[in-house]
Amino acid sequence: MAFRNWSKAAGLALAGMIATCGALRAQEWPTREIRLIAPFGPIGFVDLVARVIADELAQDLGKPVIVENRAGAGGALGAGQVARAAPDGYTLLLGGLAPNIMSPAINTNVTYDGLRDFTHIAYIGGPPVAWIVPKDSPLKTVRDVIEEARKDRLVGYNSSGVGTLGHVLVAMVIKQANVKIPHVPMNQASMMDIIAGRVPLGSFAYGSVVGQIEGGAARMISVSSEKRVAAFPDIPTFKDSGFDVAAHSWLSLEAPRGLPQPIADRLHTAIGKIVRKPNVAERFRGEGIDPKPMSPAELTAFFESEAARWIPAAKDAVSGE
Fewest Cβ atoms nearer than 10 Å: which of 19, 72, 200, 268? Predict the structure, then answer.
């Protein structure tokens, strides 16, 4: 009995020592550079946000924050890399709707749980989706697109990948209209196909196309926000066109499950400061991003509600093609 009691006491003491050492390591963090995985290519709004966050976070933490683009499978390759990483605060993910919720729902080879295999640190926000067409296209409205689809005159539409919000929103609209448009999932570099007129329609994050729109290389015909975008008040929303579709893509800062609480708290506080900085807020507004403050608990609840909303929609989009 005495041996058992001694053994139990020794075990408790060891656990306490391990916890203390972990807490001390968390207090010392960071001691070296941090990797921020951007799960899409080096073009588009995800990469832009990743680099803004990385630069500002490096100033806050006093250590370099290096952006690594790990594109593929609608964000799943990059997210999977982070899910498998050590929860030590040195590997972070610019996650969100596509890599954490939509991609795991539709990619059978995804081995992570986008909700439970990550520490959800901070909500960052994201833009609506914009439908764009070549500058000389006869398509002026969403209704024009639907009518051309009814006549089987559209060769397809581009998005930045299967299971992305751009893909899913088109699937929702054409389902409501009871028409078909082939999906041509390409990366953001395929914007040239829209500009050159090789593909008649694109469905991308607003921030990824606003430069082409302002430069006259393409035209925007609709946005997925609840209200019209202030910079383009003449561009109708999908609701304006009679479709029950409204959504923003969104990003969040993620880490592997098990991140020590002191590190999660420090990152959460840092991101809150960053998105409120006037220079960052102005940059994000130009990309159609409107950050909202959320506590970690609110963010976790938000993940759950978004999963309930978008997992069925993503599965439906894929099964309908």
Answer: 19
